[in-house]
Each structure stands twice: as C-alpha cells, then as structure tokens.
C-alpha cells in the first residue's frame, strides 16, 4: 500500500491581534501560509499599554523575518541595570553580556502600531470585533465561531490571545489559569523630570514597601556636550514603573476602578521612607498619565500546547512575568519558530517540533523571573538579608552566564527536522475530539 503524503498547512486563523498575533501572521505569510488575524476588540490598540523591553534575542527573531528595523527605529537602547536598596546604597550593576547588543525600550503602542502596519502592508487581513467563543475541528480543518454569530475556517487555528486565553481553555478545559505574583504594577512618563539623564541605564530601588524603577533620557535638542541647543534648562523625560506588593489578588478592572489619584496617594505612602527619586516623580506625575497596568501575573506550566489543528503562542502558552524583560521577545521567537515548523513539516509533526523547540527555553526563563519577583516582596527580615547578600552574590555572577538568553538566534533558511519520537507525548493532546467549546 502506498502512503499518501501528509498535507501541509496552507491557511491559518490567528486569534488575537497584539504583538504576538501580528508577528505570527507576518512570519506565517513569509512561510507561504495565508494568515488572517481575528481581534476581539472593535478598534486598534493605539494608545493602550505602557512600555516594554525587547531583548536582543527578540530583535534577532524579528531579523529572521526582516522586521527588526521597525523596532530599532522606535526603540531606545538600555545598556545596564543598577540595583539600589531603599536607602540609596548601590547593590549591583550589570549590563548586557559582552558582544551582545543592548536591550531596547519601546512603548507598547508604538511597537503594536509598527507591526500592525507591516502586517497590513504584507497582505495580512486583520478583522476586528471578533471575540472567539468556541471552535470545531475535524480532518479537513478547523472552524472558529465568534460572539457576533459569524465563523471562519482554515487549516490551523493559532491562539495568540494572551494570558487569559480563550483558545487555551478550548484546547484543554483543565488548563491552568494565570498565577498572581503578589504585585500590582504602575508606570508613567514624566516630562521635565528634574533628573539628569541616566545615560541608557535603568535604575531600580528595592524600597521598604515597594519596588521602583526609572530611567531618564536627554532633553530633546541636547547636544553631545549636554548643553541645550535652545539655551533652556529643561530637564529630560523620565519613565518610571512601580511594583506594589498586595496580598489579595485583584483584576485589572478592579485596579482601574480604584482611580489614578488614589493609587498615586497609595504609592506616595509606600515610597515615603525611600531615598530614591520615587516621591518627586510621583508628585510630578499627572493622574491622567498614570498607567495602571494591574496585577502582575505569570502562567504555571501549561501541559497542553496544541491539540489537533489548534496551537498556543506567546502568553497563552508561556507568559513570563514582566520581571524577566523577556515576555514580548519570547512571544516573537515562538511566532517565528512556529512558522518555520509549519513551513517545513506536515502539520501534526510541525506542532510537536514547535513545542520541542520552545518549551525548555521558555520555562527556564519563566522560573528565573519567578525568583526575581520573590526579591520584590520580602518582609522586613528578608529585606535586610537580601540587601546584605545581594552585593556579594552579584559579584559572583558572570554576565556571560546570561548570554544563553540573549544570544538565541533563529536561522530562517535552515530546514526544521522532524520531531523526536520521544516527544511530549500525551501532553500534546494529539488525539483531538471533533469539537471543543469554551
């Protein structure tokens, strides 16, 4: 008997139009797969969200599909991180490992806008107002059903719908839910900050009651000698972020309901005893400019990344805490690797190969970020121990040992081999029932 060749993936539905979804659609198009993005919100996400860092490995992944210059055009290099205790004592300073490009700070809305425009320019269809409610699949394809009664079909459905993913629950109704990290996050941009430039460094303070980070750029129009070209004495623009410990979990909606003025009052109290710029920057922050990011969350290990013709991508599968500085970069990496696998392998093999390529790396980074979060929420005794031990511990840390995170590169032209037979096995859920509903 002659075996029929396994079909390749020709079309894909990408659920979620954020950074992961747009990157996935671009990568799939480059792999020769027609991808359409379905976004739950009626409008674009312009003006929504704060800042984020793109690590060198994230830029490398964008380079693989020819889009990294979009980020370089809008990003600001971040050359080092300096850690302080609540009393202003420097605990440690570390930069990017030798030979590795610096991280880039970008505003989420600018990155979103750039990727969205690039996707549209490359022929990707993006449909708004399509909130997924259920999906059905069989040997011929998968059909997504939306809240407005419409539906769409393709060879594959990609869940790029974030940490509170609907697709994850459809693939595996027993899938874990996001884990609260015990912190609520905030941030803002402050013009005329009163601070000198931090010269590309991010400064961070482990405060008595909360964690505070900031960096300051040169004022616009500053020359190489630091003098203002227009003769003014205007200070640079500062960007700050804060992680406030809170035992009781709260949703993003509940955090927003508290209101910016009340949160600024709470934060002012939290940083009252700290010797950092926190109080002054908080006083200079217009409540209208406060970004209430909400609870910091991460995902426990997600046992099932794909089932049948559905697969998870980015935060829906591996949401790293923002402390990792890797959330967006890992999502971008996964989008490019998924496209490579689907380009080179039959679909069922491609999804297994994708998980084998990605799971060990992302879970290692997520565990490292969880350790960082624990340093932000110690009690009084833990704070003293941390501040005493950290300077010594950081002296023993060699930057090159972190290079494995940042030097990760994807060779787009290299063929993806078939997955190992000792793969993820039952975790992949390859034997899928015909229909799943959220």
From TrEMBL:
Pfam family, one: FAD_binding_3
GO molecular function, one term: monooxygenase activity
Species, as recorded: Streptacidiphilus alkalitolerans
Region (Disordered): 419-438
Lineage: Bacteria, Bacillati, Actinomycetota, Actinomycetes, Kitasatosporales
Coiled coil residues, start to end: none
Taxonomic superkingdom: Bacteria
FAD-binding domain sequence ranges: 12-172, 305-368
Matching InterPro entries: FAD-bd, FAD-dep_Monooxygenase_BioMet, FAD/NAD-bd_sf
Keyword Lipid metabolism among record annotations: no
Keyword annotations: Monooxygenase, Oxidoreductase
Protein name from the UniProt record: FAD-dependent monooxygenase
